Amino acid sequence: MISRMLKNRKNFFPIVCFFFIYFSLPYLDCQLSSVKQYIYIEQDTELRERIDKALVQEKGENKEKALFLYQKGLEKVHAFSIPFSLLELEYILNLEKAILYYLEAKDILLAQEHQYIPEIYQKYHPLIISPFELKHYAAVYQKNGLAGLYHSANEKFSIGLYTGAGEYIRSRLSKIFLSSSDPQTALLLAQAQKIYKEALHKADTQALRYLIENFPLDSFGEEAFLALGDIYFSQGKIEEALGVWKRLQSLKKPQNDSALHKRIALASFFYQDRETYSSLQHYTQGDARFSQLEKAFVPSPKTPFAWLSYKGNYAHNHVMDGKDLRKGKRKIIPIRLPFHFYRDYEKCYPDPLVWNNRLYYYLPSGVFCFSMDTASLLWHFIFPESRKEEKEEYPAIYTSSIHEGRLYLVSPQNRPANRIYCFDASTGAQLWHWPKEPNGNISFQQAPVIHENRLFVSAKILTGQVNVELFCLDISSSPTLLWQRFLGSILSSELEKKNKQTRASGVSLCYGLVYCCSNLGVMAAVDSHNGEIRWIAKYHEHFPQDYRLKVDETKNTILGTPPIIRNGKVHVMPLDTSHLLVYNAISGNLIKSFPESQLESNLKNLLGVNEEGNVFLNTEYEVLCLASHGPKEILWTATLPSLIVGTGFVTNSWIYVFTEDQSLYQIHAKTGKLYKITSRLLEKSLPGFCVSMFMWEQDRKYNILFSGRDVFLWQID
């Protein structure tokens, strides 16, 4: 099977390097960690030098000076990232001692180049490096000191990870004990305590967030994080509470903080994050209050009554159980669309929404609303702009989002005036579009995601290079831009060389973070409140070979699939790698890469992730199930007789896929056993070139909507 997954390696593209200035500010310099790469993210040379100086002061016990340098760094950190993980300084100091011992022993004993000096590993246990690496670190230390050693160690432990500069500084500040004997520090402590007490009295989440973002952790202790999470939890915002508490866990890394771990366990239980809950469940043992809650808890319906965004919402830990389509009495309702697909229908993968017993269908020509009772058209909107001819390299998902009775979407990419639209979902009245005067260089990507009164959407911007950015709009009244964040860029000429088009992924929102994959070398997590970068992964750096655009045949690879967040992990399969990448959702650390072989795989699509955390992928002819944990990586492989097409659909019990010969298959999620759904009646009730389906349960019936050249609704008892 593995041999079918992997292809022959091809020659890499020539590598072109340049330094790109995104803002015309004197202190900004976009650094390259290797001349072999041409994916660019924003970094700040001056900020990095200040952090290096602060690190040396911190090591030298000059805490006041380190505090001053770190605090100054917090003033301009929203846009920048640095090639650091949240690596403990204690490890670096231990490594420094080992290096000094090594250098002294090497001089005294005239040690040979790779001579093993066992005393080092006995004295400075655990030291997870080889003798060759120790020699390398010693050379780095002799040349660049402690800061250089810190950079080099980070490159080993978190290859490709760039932590947000603000979050990195906060992690360093969390290790500094503040003394009130210093006047400036005493003033800082007094300000922090005043903000904390007032915020706690008013249950002011904004003030608590301001405190966390701008003051050292020791000035208010862990209480502000705990209090902020408690407020969110009391409001029923379990996801936000988990994000706050897990963030504290990442910054502080407490070993025996039972109060924090108990909170995370409780929230994970209600959020149905099985993996996190099982790892922390022992903290709740013996707690009578938790036992009562556990017995009284009735899980919310796993199947949402209404599908309000693509695949429901990939960021939530709710996956429906599914239905064996071979069983049950069925009613089949054809929904006649009052139009025909344009000639590129095979590259249009519509993913409808359901709300208030209505079906919302978005296509390149416009958006259409149907009654689920009568299958009649209630209203429609046709995009006014004329179609611009443009080659699409990949099939693309067409979908939208519904929030509080409003329908949000972006006009198709092949329209010259690409905008975000808002409609009254009941009447079809257009409420607004943004921007009023469209910029021909900005192309909004995929469906927006709405949370409370904020709209998040990714965009591709052409300015001599291809930039991928995130936009956040306040939509409480007329739309207003709150923040715009650059994620990464590539030279336009690199796309033009291969006649390539590309799009960023859709966005997912979870734990108070917005997740987006540029599909051009960058996966990012951005704070949804202020647009600050929390972490960026330049995922091509995870692999030893040079970065290059994928050039193999991709006719059934699908554009637009957003990152899937499940059980504290981000699952993504970028279009330019064909590797599944799994990251820690809070820290950005790479957890898994599949396949591990450095040869290019022929994985096509990430179908989904079920509640157990098992991941479902497809190649051209196979569906694979990867285990969330355990010694066995691939649980099963199902081979189909014809080419797999469309988006497929994942439930806890069944996986549904379509094939090029217009057949529908269901695969048992635990065993991988394959079943073809056949009968003359069923064959007549499947659309030609069926590319998408989704399922929901209502009034004790399963409703399944199939989309292709036609649309059919199945209702099964």
SSE diagram, text form:
Layout: H1 2-5, H2 45-59, H3 63-73, E1 81-82, H4 89-109, H5 118-123, H6 131-157, E2 161-164, H7 165-173, H8 183-202, H9 205-214, H10 223-234, H11 238-252, H12 258-271, H13 274-280, H14 288-296, E3 330-335, E4 348-350, E5 353-355, E6 358-363, E7 366-371, E8 377-382, E9 396-398, E10 401-403, E11 406-410, E12 420-424, E13 430-434, E14 442-451, E15 454-462, E16 465-474, E17 480-491, H15 492-497, E18 508-510, E19 513-517, E20 522-527, E21 533-538, E22 564-566, E23 569-572, E24 580-584, E25 590-594, E26 605-609, E27 615-618, E28 622-626, E29 634-639, E30 644-650, E31 654-659, E32 664-668, E33 674-676, H16 680-684, E34 692-698, E35 701-707, E36 711-716
Parallel strand pairs: 4-9
Antiparallel strand pairs: 1-2, 2-21, 3-36, 5-6, 6-7, 7-8, 10-11, 11-12, 12-13, 14-15, 15-16, 16-17, 18-19, 19-20, 20-21, 22-23, 23-24, 24-25, 26-27, 27-28, 28-29, 30-31, 31-32, 32-33, 34-35, 35-36
Helix pairs in contact: 2-3, 3-7, 4-6, 8-9, 9-10, 10-11, 11-12, 12-13
